[in-house]
Amino acid sequence: MDAVIETAWTVPAIKAALDASPLIRDGELSLRVVEGADPVLLATMHDFGDLPIYLSVGGDQIVCSVLLWPVAEQNDRHAFNEFLLKAQRIVPLSNFAITSVGGEDVYELMGELSCRTSLQTILIELRTLAQNAIDATELRETFGADTAA
Fold this sequence. Notes:
The protein is globular. A six-stranded antiparallel β-sheet has the order 1-2-3-4-6-5. The chain has three helices and six strands. It has 149 residues and is an alpha+beta fold.
């Protein structure tokens, strides 16, 4: 069931396949295609407090990402950034990044997959990324949030 597919995925094809999939638990998530220059799939993970995960397809990869919190709100961000680079393995199968959203730097957690991976693997990535985002929030709390920001 987890074989590599012949034709690369597109965002609309992933949405259609997930909508029809028996692999998704009832009420687990909802999906919406956000149109733009390149469509993006917004997966709202209801089992994780309605966490929004964005899925895009480009080139040979599928990228799933979660925006976490503004960098400016992270207490001792230099120590936190160093910690993330040294302890990357504590959040398995995901990578931390800093991205700009509306001119503000924001921590992001993301995972990448081959665009020829199975639907089952895409669903596993969505679930894993959601759990890792929750775990990342707990990591943040060990450094404390900057309430003055």
